[in-house]
Write a structure and sequence with these properties.
CATH topology: Rhopdopsin 7-helix transmembrane proteins
Radius of gyration: 19 Å
Distance between the termini: 29 Å
Oligomer: single chain
Order of helices and strands: HHEEHHHHH
CATH architecture: Up-down Bundle
Number of strands: 2
Helix content: over 70%
Organism: Calonectris borealis
Keywords: Chromophore, G-protein coupled receptor, Membrane, Photoreceptor protein, Receptor, Retinal protein, Sensory transduction, Transducer, Transmembrane, Transmembrane helix
GO molecular function: G protein-coupled receptor activity; photoreceptor activity
Subcellular location: Membrane
Number of domains: 1
Family: Belongs to the G-protein coupled receptor 1 family.
């Protein structure tokens, strides 16, 4: 899940740089692509490994059928980790995404009357596709983050295993939606279907 959100943040920044840049995108140079992939996975590893070394812990969640960060324990060790996860793996990437797409939408509005080339139209379709991916991701992960924070900071027993099932399933299934969205919003793929 963290890799998915970080990848969306990197992708949004890359789209912003590509669309607002003055030069054509170089489709033969994969250096930026590999850098984004390595950055996404490294950042995610940095934030998912600490429970293996004693900062918080992993354990069963909800009805005990899935594993997650121990967000039921209210000791300082767990609270600090959950708060850091929330800030560095949800809030900051989301701010990057909103900033990148906000600036990109402003740039598109400015040039929409001047440049109606097929390259820019294609980039606008990609932008729509990525924005839909981000919205779906947030619809999947915000309920889970809300439940985790309520369990951490709310009254004991406020979040029962039954209440946590739906947000957990939504969060775990979030990686399935990006390929589906890509298939339906990508003209090249939909033509093949």
């Amino acid at each position: 899940g963290i890799v998915s959100l970080i990848s969306l943040a990197v992708l949004s920044y890359e789209r912003y740089c590509t669309m607002t840049g003055t030069t054509e995108a170089d489709t033969t140079n994969y250096r930026k692509t590999w850098t984004g992939i390595v950055l996404s996975w490294t950042y995610s590893l940095v934030w998912t490994a600490p429970p293996l070394f004693g900062w918080s812990s992993y354990g069963p969640e909800g009805p005990g059928t899935t594993c997650s960060v121990n967000w039921h324990s209210k000791d300082a060790n767990n609270v600090s980790y959950v708060v850091c996860l929330f800030i560095f793996c949800l809030v900051i990437p989301f701010v990057i995404i909103v900033y990148s797409y906000g600036k990109l939408l402003c740039a598109i509005r400015q040039v929409s009357g001047f440049n109606k080339g097929t390259g820019r139209t294609r980039e606008q379709r990609i932008l729509i596709m990525v924005v839909v991916m981000v919205i779906c991701f947030l619809l999947c992960w915000l309920p889970y983050a809300t439940v985790a924070l309520l369990a951490m900071f709310g009254k004991p027993g406020l979040i029962t295993p039954a209440v946590s099932i739906i947000p957990s399933i939504l969060a775990k299934s979030s990686t399935v939606y990006n390929p589906i969205i890509y298939i339906f919003l990508n003209k090249q793929v939909s033509k093949m279907l």
